[in-house]
Amino acid sequence: MIRPAKIEEIPHILRLTWACAQHMIGNNIYQWNEDYPSKEAFLKDIERGELFVLEHNSLIQGCITISSLMDEEYAPVQWLTPNDNNLYIHRLAVLPELQGKGKARLLMDKAESKGRVEGYVSIRLDTFSKNERNQRFYEARGYEKLGPVYFPKQSIHPFYCYELVL
């Protein structure tokens, strides 16, 4: 079941994302660290009703932020659609032991369905340039790779922006 996250679940969500960060680091992908994702980001996500969790048998297996707010780092990107009716994906994570089992697909299905039902024109996101698995995942879903953005607190390497026109 995918449902809105609750404030009391933040410690579980932070453990989930830390496990993902450690898993990526173990694969030489330095995408997440002690600064990101943060408790503060998840608190804001919950306050705005944008954080969702994938739960099965009372276990939070994954999470996703589905936001209508565009981060300032995205301003210079040449998007495929105008900047006024888009959804943005952030902090998609699945427990490492459950990766490769379709959980991220379910979370992205939720985001794309929400976008279509609510009349958004596109879904936008970024993924780390060194995370080729994520790039293949989004490209297989029909997302078009656009320009790079930089998040200096996370990495010196760029993050590639992607957009799916709905």
How would you describe what is shown here?
- The chain has 166 residues and is an alpha+beta fold.
- The chain has a single domain, classed as Aminopeptidase, CATH 3.40.630.30.
- The chain is 30% helix and 28% strand.
- It has four helices and seven strands; from the N terminus they run βααβββαβαββ.
- The protein has helices at residues 10-26, 39-47, 103-117, 132-140; strands spanning 2-4, 51-56, 59-67, 86-94, 122-128, 144-149, 159-165.
- Strands 1-2-3-4-5-7-6 form a seven-stranded mixed β-sheet.
- Helix 3 (103-117) links the parallel strand 4 and strand 5 (122-128).
- It is globular, with a radius of gyration of 15 Å.
Class of secondary structure makeup: alpha+beta
The largest β sheet comes out as:
7 strands, mixed
Q: SSE order, as H and E?
A: EHHEEEHEHEE
CATH class: Alpha Beta
Rough outline: globular
Strand segment tally: 7
Beta strand %: 25-35%
Biggest sheet: strands side by side, in what order?
1-2-3-4-5-7-6
- Given as residue ranges, the uncertain stretches (5+ residues, pLDDT < 50) are none
Q: Tell me the CATH topology.
A: Aminopeptidase
Helical proportion?
Answer: 25-40%
Rg measurement, Å: 15 Å
**Count of alpha and pi helical runs:** 4
CATH architecture heading: 3-Layer(aba) Sandwich
Number of domain units: 1
Find the CATH superfamily.
Answer: Gcn5-related N-acetyltransferase (GNAT)
Q: Report mean pLDDT, rounded to a whole number.
A: 95
End-to-end separation? 24 Å
Task: Give a short summary of the structure.
By secondary structure, this protein is an alpha+beta fold. The protein has 4 helices and 7 strands; from the N terminus they run βααβββαβαββ. 30% of the residues lie in helices and 28% in strands.
